[in-house]
Amino acid sequence: MKKIIPFILGSIVLLITGCVQNSEKKGTSENSSHNLYVTEQGFVDANGVLIYYEAFGKGEPLVILHGGPGASHDYFLPYLLPLARTNRLIFIDERGSGRSQKAEKLSDYTVENMVEDVETIRKELKLGKISLLGHSCGGVLAEAYALKYQENLTHLILCSTFHSTKKMNEVLRNIKAKMAPELRIRIEKMEKEGLYGHGKDYEKNRYTSEYMIAAWGEGYFPYLYQNHPDPNYDPVANGIMAWDVYREMWGSNGEYVIDGNLTSVEYGDRLPTVKVPTLITAGDNDECDPSLSREMNEKIAGSKLVILPKSGHMTFVDQPALFISAVDEFLHPGK
């Protein structure tokens, strides 16, 4: 039997939905209640894996899926906070990532299983029809959900993502080809030597710091940020993630080839079956090249495409006002 499990973290009491509603009714004044955003946090037992979720905001539900694979919802905050004024935001940490439980077998980390996790969360939290936003690999998950459970969606938002691993691998090869020769030679030397098993025992199950700096800090950085580079970005700190999930899904042979189980992602022929209102966004200098978004836009009839200027992969960091406006106007036209 699947359950929703509330809990207490530090001094913050985390509440299930019923308690949240009661707390709002006890506001000291109409004004304070209007301005109060109570956070609901807990776990949903989804298909034998406890999935962490965090919810707050006012309005219709907007479920938000993170990328990586193997990251967590944390990188969305504080940038997506303004959407809470008009939507109930439900962030989740996908199975094996963030605060969610690890799966028993690596082979359980699949897009297909994560789709079922999202559907279980929708049911257990009694969300009814939802809007669904996915960023990067989370956008792949959002596409897969829409292809199976379209009837449960009111809106679909695909941000800086791809619909074909073959085409994404072409993009990655092009990024590598455009590097300064010295950087490309350095990266390829490390890839040829193998990226795991180096250094101290505690370092052997992740990339070396040297590779993180070269691949993420030098190779990817121009495709991550353009207008507002995050001054706190640290490629080595970026390596604090779920490496088991990452290697199973992305692969073990470096940043510039996807050869894990994400190779199953070839949705191009099926995207025309998506009829739910769809917004597609990307940065004009995105790691997921905007040509991929344009192709998705062509395949999903009636979809809206927004290419954000002076933006990399982290569009909501580079152009926060434009990103929030695009999403808000899509979800609430004529507001």
Keywords:
alpha/beta, Rossmann fold, globular, 335 residues, 11 strands, two-stranded antiparallel sheet, nine-stranded mixed beta sheet
Question: How would you portray this structure in words?
Answer:
There is one protein chain. The chain is α/β, with parallel strands linked by helices and 335 residues long. The protein has two domains: 4-166 and 268-331, Alpha/Beta hydrolase fold, catalytic domain (Rossmann fold), CATH 3.40.50.1820; 178-263, no CATH class. The protein is 35% helix and 18% strand. The chain has a nine-stranded mixed sheet with strand order 1-4-5-7-6-8-9-10-11, sandwiched between helices. Helix 9 (290-299) links the parallel strand 10 (278-283) and strand 11. It is globular. The termini are far apart. Residues 1-31 have low confidence and may be disordered.
Question: What order do the helices and strands come in, and which of them pair?
Answer:
Elements: E1 4-6, E2 8-9, E3 12-13, H1 17-25, H2 30-34, E4 40-46, E5 49-57, E6 60-65, E7 87-92, H3 111-124, E8 130-135, H4 137-149, E9 153-159, H5 165-177, H6 181-193, H7 209-224, H8 243-249, E10 278-283, H9 290-299, E11 304-308, H10 315-318, H11 320-331
Parallel strand pairs: 6-7, 6-8, 8-9, 9-10, 10-11
Antiparallel strand pairs: 1-4, 2-3, 4-5, 5-7
Helix pairs in contact: 3-4, 6-7
